[in-house]
Amino acid sequence: MIALALGAATLAAAAPAAAASAPSVSTGSAKLVSYTTATLTGTINPHGQDTSYFFQYGPTKAYGSQTAVADAGHGTRTVRVNFPVGGLQPLTRYHFRLLAVNASGASTGGDGSFTTKKVPLSLAILVAPNPVIFGGNAFVQGTLSGTGNGGAAVALQANPFPFLQGFANIGNPELTTAAGSFSFPVLGLAQTTQFRVVTVSSHPVSSPVAVEYVAVRVTSHVGRAGRRHFARIYGTVTPAVDGAQVGILRIAHGRGVPVAGTFLRHHNATSSFYSRVVRVHPGAYRVLVVTNGAQVSNYGRPLLIG
Q1: CA–CA separation, 286 vs 273, rounded Å?
Q2: Whether the predicted pLDDT of 17 surpasses 80
Q3: CA separation, residue 182 to residues 186, 208, 211, 245, 273 (Å)
Q4: Parallel, antiparallel, or unpaired for β 303-305 and 132-133?
Q5: With 50 as the cut, is the pLDDT of residue 5 above it?
């Protein structure tokens, strides 16, 4: 029995070790695919030797790009590997494959492919000039960005003060330019209004809301007061905002210093008026009409008093 056991041990020691071999490689699939990024995956068996790997990728089977080299370890079991790639073009088919190398040689996985997603559409707008004088014209301009942004139909929507009506289309839809830009004229604005632009599609995309402020129209004049060093400052405000506060300012060192005040009184169905006799010094004066609601405050033109 002892002799047989020794013989078996001798035979086991004399048996050659398993031959080392290049890694086994299988290209997997692309995960987490967006319009500019993806994560490439695969599997590797290092066969007991230190093994490194990388992915090749590109728009054809010639690839043209590759990831950095990474470590797959030196185990004897199959391991999953992955590598994120970026800088891809949207809505483009890419090919990729996994390569691994150890001291016994290099192995290449088969070709895989994936298609990046389209860039989601998004809208950005601005309204100018802002504020606009009562009855004036403004423009809602912006850009549609993303895949398919050129020649797309977009519509302008408005929600006037006090912003309770909800948004409704105004005018006709427009087609964006090849670069995705657009411009809507808005004529004769009479009150502060919220605007937005939406795409005309089964899955509409909406821009953020932009508020166009409408300022009251203020006229300012200087008249004689019949007293030395005094003047009558008067004018009208459109639309009518009877009871609104009026401030008369003297411009000193670039700042407006209040010198008098009054309130708007009824003039007619469309305007209010003000008039105030004030003590004056040579220099520049301005009238500020303070309002809130459908229209915002505004200044009259500078008045030069000698």
Answers
A1: 15
A2: no
A3: 13, 15, 18, 40, 40
A4: unpaired
A5: no
* Average pLDDT in the chain: 93
User: 142 phi and psi, to 5 degrees?
Assistant: 180, -170
Confidence of residue 202 (pLDDT cuts 50, 70, 90): confident
Question: What's the 3-state SS for 246-266?
Answer: EEEEEEECCEEEEEEEEECEE
Cβ–Cβ under 8 Å, residues 259 and 277: no
Q: DSSP of 20-55, one letter per residue?
A: P-PPEEEEEEEES--SS-EEEEEEEE-TTS-EEEEE
Query: CA-to-CA distance for 28 and 4, rounded, in angstroms?
Result: 50
Q: Pick from 146, 143, 213: which is nearest to 176 by CA? A: 143
- The pTM of the full predicted model, rounded to 2 decimals, is 0.77
Sole residue written with tokens 């166009």: 212
The pair of three-digit structure tokens given for residue 35, joined into one six-digit string: 């319009």
Stretch 60-78: mean pLDDT: 97
Q: What is the pLDDT of residue 19?
A: 64
Whether omega before 162 lies within 30 degrees of 0, making that bond cis, reads yes
**Beta partners for residue 294, in sequence order:** none
Residues paired with residue 96 on neighbouring β-strands, in sequence order = 57, 112
d(CA 8, CA 2) in angstroms, rounded, equals: 10
Q: Which of 297, 186, 195 is nearest to 246 (CA)?
A: 297
> Residue 172 CB: number of other CB atoms within 10 A?
9
Torsion angles phi and psi, residue 170, rounded to 5: -125, 135
Q: Please measure the distance between the N-terminal and C-terminal CA atoms of the chain and give it in whole angstroms.
A: 132
Report residue 284 as tokens.
């520049």
**Cβ atoms within 10 A of the Cβ of 240, count?**
19
Can you give the pLDDT at residue 178?
Answer: 97
Residues 121-146 have pLDDT tens digits of 999 999 999 999 999 999 999 999 99
| Mean pLDDT in residue range 98-108 | 97
